[in-house]
Model the fold of this input.
Amino acid sequence: MNATQRIEQALANALECWETNGIDPPRLAAAMRHAVFPGGARIRPRLCLAIAAASGDPDPDVTDAAAAAIELMHCASLVHDDLPCFDNARTRRGLPSVHTAFGERIAVLTGDALIVLAFETIAKGAAHQPERMLALLLTLSRGVGAPHGIVAGQAWECEPNVDLRVYQRAKTGSLFVAAVTAGAQAAGGNPIPWQALGERLGEAYQVADDIRDVVATAEALGKPVHRDEELGRPNAVDQLGLDAALERFDSLVAKASAAIPRCAGAPMLRQLIRAEAQRLIPEEFQRRAA
Amino acid sequence: MNATQRIEQALANALECWETNGIDPPRLAAAMRHAVFPGGARIRPRLCLAIAAASGDPDPDVTDAAAAAIELMHCASLVHDDLPCFDNARTRRGLPSVHTAFGERIAVLTGDALIVLAFETIAKGAAHQPERMLALLLTLSRGVGAPHGIVAGQAWECEPNVDLRVYQRAKTGSLFVAAVTAGAQAAGGNPIPWQALGERLGEAYQVADDIRDVVATAEALGKPVHRDEELGRPNAVDQLGLDAALERFDSLVAKASAAIPRCAGAPMLRQLIRAEAQRLIPEEFQRRAA
Done:
């Protein structure tokens, strides 16, 4: 199986545990499926798999569980971010957002259930490797919870005084760092050399997100645009101007590539980062990000 | 330390990890504290501790982590249940509910962060006992997630056709079963003999909740009353009448006591159940529940 197939299969397996018993609350089950399938680029689980592969990937079941858990957390955060009290986004990935399709109550519960499922997926998938299970659980909670994870990042949006770097590192960077860390840990490797790669990618992703919010169309993006301006949130294009934001993106992508430790998987990782950089920036601006 | 002190200390320890670094988003940190302290009766962690004690409690650190995790999940569920899109409860435990005090966005994030913290607490507290850690993680995810946990219970409220027993078992019973199961597992014991006790207590608790919603005052309860009628939710008093509901409560409490397995801790557990039964029903109705 290639990476895409492994990720989709691992996510399907995680959700299936809940569905085969036939007594799920049906709307919750449908909403969870809607939140996870079809996915976006699956960049975080892709990174997780790539770094595990670069570390030998001796136990693919553990790696698959780690990759699925990271993506489930990402999906949970999107469902809650889209809620009326946050971004109030009616679309996501070109489809109705979960609360648009299933109502606000089911959307809150879907996020909750996906967070629980992420931890359950690690517990089940790494049960035969207790040390790796523990490491992955702590990576997951650090990447998602307070004080540094995506939940904390979202909470900084409710504060009057915000350190932009701390906010963006928590909101976007933390799950990228978790993805690369989990990839190394799932393979029994040392996650420390990979951390800088996760950090740079997280920063690059945040800048790209800011750029797309300003220059892309809702059709191309599959979700509302100009949200940062409407919601008064910091945006790299507003702060630096479009040219400087694009330059910053290029520079971060270059730094991410340079941060890949010397290993057999390095060319494959560089290729992954190049492809992702192209996907993240609308075509007419890609000359810079080539 | 007595049970109360152990529980409060374990919860304080769990929250402290997030607070000592000083860079928490301050409103999220305050809201999490508000959601957990001061607590209610802490009946679930009390049960967890009592059953671990009845099983010898060989490793109190693991037991404390399990008890704290169960209570953190309970607090998370209250925060999300109180949200405007669910119960829209402006008070809880006699104080403003989390969304009333901190706003809806922080309330959503507080619930999320407490769920993550519950898993993290198990991972950290049982790291030296990998088998127990795994058992506790699965107990926690089963008690909280879909298809049988409290999230699923809440989701049944969004369905047109509901089996009342399945709904109540998930919404209330699941975390009681998780509490007794976790108590046995934390002590390395067999959880199966304890399951019936958790189920009966969960049912009794649900009936008591229904009774109080009808007969208690908001002042005495510290939260809004008559919510089931307003929200069109099933309530044992509406279905059976008050007398029969009180009889059902008495019968469930008696069944819970009878379900305690033969063990050294049985008298202490019976005493705990008696005290809890008295606390759950307003004084003027306690003749029946004596």
In short: The mean pLDDT of chain B is 93. Chain B touches chain A through 55 residues (CB under 8 Å). Residues 3-289 of chain B form a domain with the Farnesyl Diphosphate Synthase fold (CATH 1.10.600.10). The radius of gyration of chain B is 18 Å.
